[in-house]
């Protein structure tokens, strides 16, 4: 006992039997503190576990548990011949780092890679679901969550083996089959279900396409104005975006050929150009496919919101015209259902499929299987189709509300462009909006709680048009009217 007292000031290790913390945890925590504070010095030998147990009045097993934990954490080491010792001298430094000194020490700003700095500095879009005229988010108020949760329970009560043991980088095969059937029926596309490749949203699809198909210095056609966020994926691999103007027929292939005939990839939104809203004409589609074949380039067809065409039949996809395996079709459930699902997909040309699977497995093996089987049932049981049908009607009415409210408050200051589809409409200025630029109008609106995206911010180069992107996906008609009234009054101020 005397020896123990000499080695460890036993009163410092005290067991509190009224505390719910198990005794071994109490011993462990207090010994750790004694080591870190320097009360137990490096190289000091601990009494035997039997002596410690006697001194503390607990079982030897309890002490052994605590000591083994501290050995595993690297605070103690032991040898069968000479006993258990405090590790040192490194721990002195660890002890110095603790306590008040730690809090007082100024922490250096984090130094990121050049790419990291670029990505971290990028401005995030303002998403305010429900607020006029926030873009990018659909309405979930009518989403059949009761059905969704029933499907969740039914799938996960006894999950199929191919769900829990999935190792396929392309994702859950039944979901890929359901997506293929849907695209065959609605978009005139023909491909094997095995060529559907599930991603965590289409943003990841874009990132994979950039990483696996582009080299540093490669050039990529991007629509101008366009989905400016695609630049992040390109920049990540050192590829350069070439702005190719769009006109009423979509991307100008002739301009693309002039600016970068040898580009490796073209990123296009043929079904509903983002953000101008027009449909790429048949002639342009053929021109684009011809260029890709001649230049041995790829086309990424970003079909981000085509499910929500407000009326008429869904449009055939560009992919349906591709005879040369140049088109990669990219879809997402972010706009049709909700973006928190983080489920998107690529339809890959057969010549890319196996390579993408292998490469992806080494980066991020596959998208979580939590929601994939549930979504499969949601599609197979017909809920997806009926939900889309209902949403389309609602979106059509909301678009009408935006256009008529804008006419009431702004007269003919705007021209409304594009096909009646999706979750937003672009209001192009006929001239400066009561003397203001779109950027200025957007800033003033935001200060008054109205979110509008300035069209000029979708250009890489100087904007050739000014306007406002007005989202209505998550905005009800009353809020649309009120939002337009606010917009009109703040722009005058
Ligand atoms: C044109 C376009 N492409 C792709 C995306 C990315 O969608 P996801 O949520 O599937 O990554 C968006 C999202 O706003 C978009 O507007």
Automatic annotation (TrEMBL):
Keywords: Aminotransferase, DNA-binding, Pyridoxal phosphate, Transcription, Transcription regulation, Transferase. Residues 21-89 form the HTH gntR-type domain. It comes from Chelatococcus asaccharovorans. It comes from the Bacteria. GO terms for molecular function: DNA binding; DNA-binding transcription factor activity; pyridoxal phosphate binding; transaminase activity. The keyword Transcription regulation applies. This is GntR family transcriptional regulator/MocR family aminotransferase. InterPro entries: Aminotransferase_I/II_large (IPR004839), HTH_trans_reg/aminotransferase (IPR051446), PyrdxlP-dep_Trfase (IPR015424), PyrdxlP-dep_Trfase_major (IPR015421), Tscrpt_reg_HTH_GntR (IPR000524), WH-like_DNA-bd_sf (IPR036388), WH_DNA-bd_sf (IPR036390). The keyword Cell membrane does not apply.
């Amino acid at each position: 006992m005397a020896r123990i007292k000499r080695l460890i000031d036993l009163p410092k290790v005290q067991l509190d039997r009224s505390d719910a913390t198990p005794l071994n945890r109490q011993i462990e925590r207090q010994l750790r503190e004694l080591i870190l504070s320097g009360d137990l010095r490096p190289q000091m030998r601990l009494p035997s576990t039997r002596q410690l147990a006697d001194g503390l009045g607990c079982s030897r097993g309890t002490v052994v548990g605590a000591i083994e934990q501290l050995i595993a954490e690297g605070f103690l080491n032991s040898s069968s011949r000479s006993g258990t010792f405090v590790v040192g001298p490194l721990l002195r430094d660890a002890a110095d780092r603790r306590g008040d000194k730690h809090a007082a020490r100024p922490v250096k700003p984090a130094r990121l890679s050049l790419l990291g700095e670029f990505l971290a500095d990028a401005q995030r879009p303002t998403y305010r679901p429900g607020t006029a005229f926030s873009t990018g988010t659909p309405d979930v108020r009518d989403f059949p969550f009761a059905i969704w949760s029933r499907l969740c329970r039914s799938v996960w009560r006894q999950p199929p083996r191919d769900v829990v043991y999935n190792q396929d980088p392309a994702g859950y095969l039944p979901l890929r089959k359901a997506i293929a059937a849907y695209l065959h029926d609605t978009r005139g596309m023909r491909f094997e279900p095995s060529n559907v490749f599930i991603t965590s949203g289409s943003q990841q699809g874009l990132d994979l396409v950039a990483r696996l198909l582009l080299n540093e210095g490669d050039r990529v056609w991007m629509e101008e104005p366009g989905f400016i966020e695609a630049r992040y994926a390109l920049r990540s691999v050192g590829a350069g975006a070439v702005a190719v103007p769009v006109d009423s027929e979509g991307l100008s292939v002739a301009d693309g050929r002039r600016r970068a005939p040898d580009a490796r990839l073209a990123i296009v939104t043929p079904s509903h150009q983002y953000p101008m809203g027009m449909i790429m004409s048949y002639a342009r589609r053929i021109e684009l496919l011809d260029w890709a074949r001649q230049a041995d380039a790829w086309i990424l067809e970003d079909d981000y919101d085509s499910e929500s065409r407000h009326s008429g039949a869904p449009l055939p996809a560009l992919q349906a015209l591709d005879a040369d395996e140049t088109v990669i079709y990219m879809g997402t459930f972010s706009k049709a259902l909700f973006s928190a699902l983080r489920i998107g997909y690529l339809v890959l040309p057969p010549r890319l499929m196996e390579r993408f699977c292998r490469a992806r497995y080494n980066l991020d093996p596959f998208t979580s299987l939590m929601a994939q089987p549930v979504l499969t049932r949601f599609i197979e049981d017909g809920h997806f189709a009926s939900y889309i049908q209902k949403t389309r009607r609602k979106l059509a009415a909301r678009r009408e509300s935006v256009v008529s409210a804008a006419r009431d408050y702004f007269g003919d200051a705007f021209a409304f462009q594009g096909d009646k589809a999706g979750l937003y409409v672009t209001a192009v200025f006929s001239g400066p909006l009561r003397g203001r630029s779109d950027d200025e109008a957007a800033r003033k609106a935001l200060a008054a709680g109205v979110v509008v995206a300035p069209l000029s911010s979708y250009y890489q180069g100087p904007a050739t048009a000014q306007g406002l992107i007005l989202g209505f996906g998550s905005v009800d008609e009353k809020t649309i009217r009120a939002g337009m009234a606010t917009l009109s009054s703040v722009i005058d101020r």
